[in-house]
Specification:
Layout: E1 4-6, E2 15-19, H1 24-34, E3 40-44, H2 50-61, E4 65-70, E5 73-77, E6 89-90, H3 95-106, E7 111-115, H4 118-121, H5 126-134, E8 138-140, E9 148-151, E10 159-161, H6 167-177, E11 183-188, H7 195-202, E12 207-212, E13 215-221, E14 230-231, H8 236-248, E15 253-260, H9 267-275, E16 279-287, E17 290-298, E18 307-308, H10 320-328, E19 332-336, H11 349-360, E20 363-367, E21 370-375, E22 380-387, H12 392-403, E23 405-412, H13 424-431
Parallel strand pairs: 2-15, 3-14, 6-7, 10-11, 18-19, 22-23
Antiparallel strand pairs: 1-23, 3-5, 4-5, 7-9, 8-9, 11-13, 12-13, 15-17, 16-17, 19-21, 20-21
The chain binds shikimate-3-phosphate.
Shikimate-3-phosphate (S3P) binds at residues 25, 96, 166-168, 171, 192-193, 317-318, 341.
């Protein structure tokens, strides 16, 4: 599956009911927070994509154990005190692992080193090193990039206004703060995903959130987390690929069961509203302090362009590549602004996306902080070869574009899909008519 070829001929519509992989953000947190409960917890519907497996291996190196009841359920047993690892901690491709763990490790009383793959070793870590250093952390890096050599110690609390709306930065500081005497507070101008805040609350940490003249804030005090079972919802960021494929492929109608509907993650549904995608939300409920429901999406032939900018960006940052494919099918000009951090993801998602979509025949203009797409309801030309740039979300976005392309689109290194969605192809085949 290293290279994969896809075109319109591949499907006559997507139809049926599916479940998608568990939420990656919550899966990472279930392990990292669970590791600090000093007890046993059952984690149900855990994501076994490569990213979360990296976090799992790391917390095992810190003295936790994990027993699998079945392929999606594990019992995590955390020691009373996390232990110094015997070797480097490999985060693989996962920025969430590296940035969240750096906060935890900086506040523990041992040395550790976080390493990553080629893509992760090129990603900026100053955003976490800076606030942690203000707390007194000792971190050596390769010019603010991985590897990060962390000399853990007792920290002092910080009152930090984050220059970017990043849940990874916020969570890193809160993870250091929950082990630090005093009150640690992080502010951000725009609210980024709040899974950490919800999980801290769920596991009994002393945490408060709100909004004041400095922005959205979260404060945490030194707390012992209590062991409590965690059930993880489906990942809306993975669902997004099937949601968009159903919206753009004729005769489609799919229901995606049990998807996380945390409002800090549902920007794509606001875009669906603006663009005229036909969808419904069913069976809403709350699971482990997170809202969950089913999303039903119908083929939507009359899509309209829209502007995507400002406060919505953190609520759909990971969905922008697949939203670009949706926009390419919407009549008119869709503009995406204020998303320069897309250049710091698993790849430079603005330039890699623009170069792949252009080859497929989509009119896309790259901007420093986003892109402009001139959409059409006609099929794309295809007949080309595109690169994933080691980026799972680009692989799946190019796949979706290929599905509405007249000629085959060859996706090189499609294998990167395994980072978050190893069952992507079998699932597609299951519901494709
Ligand atoms: C994540 C936060 C986001 C997101 C990433 C997962 C998280 O990154 O893009 O895929 O789980 O906290 P930033 O915090 O860098 O925006």
């Amino acid at each position: 599956m290293s290279n994969f070829q896809i075109s319109k001929k591949q499907t006559g519509g997507l139809f049926g009911e599916i479940t998608i992989p568990p939420d990656k953000s919550i899966s990472h947190r279930s392990l990292i927070f669970g590791a600090q409960t000093g007890g046993r917890i059952k984690i149900s519907n855990f994501s076994f994509g490569a990213d979360c497996r990296a976090t799992l291996e790391i917390i095992k190196q810190l003295g936790c154990s994990a027993d699998f009841i079945d392929e999606r359920t594990l019992i995590l047993t955390a020691p009373k005190k996390l232990q110094a690892p015997a070797s480097a901690l490999d985060c693989g491709n996962s920025g969430t692992s590296m940035r969240l763990l750096s906060g935890l490790l900086a506040s523990l009383d041992f040395k550790s080193t976080l390493i990553g793959d080629k893509s992760l070793s090129g990603r900026p870590m100053k955003r976490v090193i800076e606030p942690l250093s203000l707390m007194g952390a000792k971190i050596k890096s390769n010019n603010f990039k991985a590897p990060l050599e962390i000399e853990g110690r007792e920290l002092t609390p910080v009152q930090y206004k984050s220059p970017i709306a990043s849940a990874q930065v916020k969570s890193c500081i809160l993870l250091a703060g929950v082990n630090t005497q005093g009150i640690t507070t992080v502010w951000e101008d725009t609210l980024s995903r709040d899974h950490s805040e919800r999980m801290f609350e769920y596991l009994g940490a002393k945490i408060s959130t709100g909004r004041d003249e400095k922005g959205f804030f979260t404060s945490v005090e030194k707390s012992q987390l209590v062991p409590k079972d965690i059930e993880i919802a489906g990942d809306i960021s993975s669902a997004a690929f099937f949601m968009v494929m159903a919206a753009i492929v004729q005769d489609s109608e799919i229901t995606i069961k049990n998807v996380g509907l945390n409002p800090t993650r549902t920007g794509i549904l606001d875009v669906f509203d603006k663009m005229g995608v036909n969808y419904e939300i069913l069976n809403k409920q709350t699971v482990s302090n997170e809202p969950v429901g089913d999303i039903k999406v119908y083929y939507s032939p009359d899509l309209k362009a829209c502007e995507i900018s400002g406060d919505i960006i953190p609520r759909l940052i990971d969905e922008l590549p697949i939203i670009a494919v949706l926009a390419a099918r919407a009549g008119g000009e869709t503009t995406v602004k204020d998303a320069s951090d897309l250049r710091n993801k698993e790849s430079d998602r603005i330039s890699a996306l623009a170069s792949g979509l252009k080859k497929i025949g989509i009119e896309i203009e790259e901007k420093p902080d986003g892109f402009v797409i001139s959409g059409t309801n006609k099929d794309f030309q295809g007949g080309t070869e595109v690169e994933t740039h080691l980026d799972h979300r680009l692989a799946m976005s190019f796949f979706a574009a290929g599905l509405v392309s007249k000629n085959p689109v060859k996706i090189n290194d499609f294998i990167w899909v395994n980072t978050s969605f190893p069952e992507f192809l079998p699932l597609f085949e299951k519901i494709s008519r």
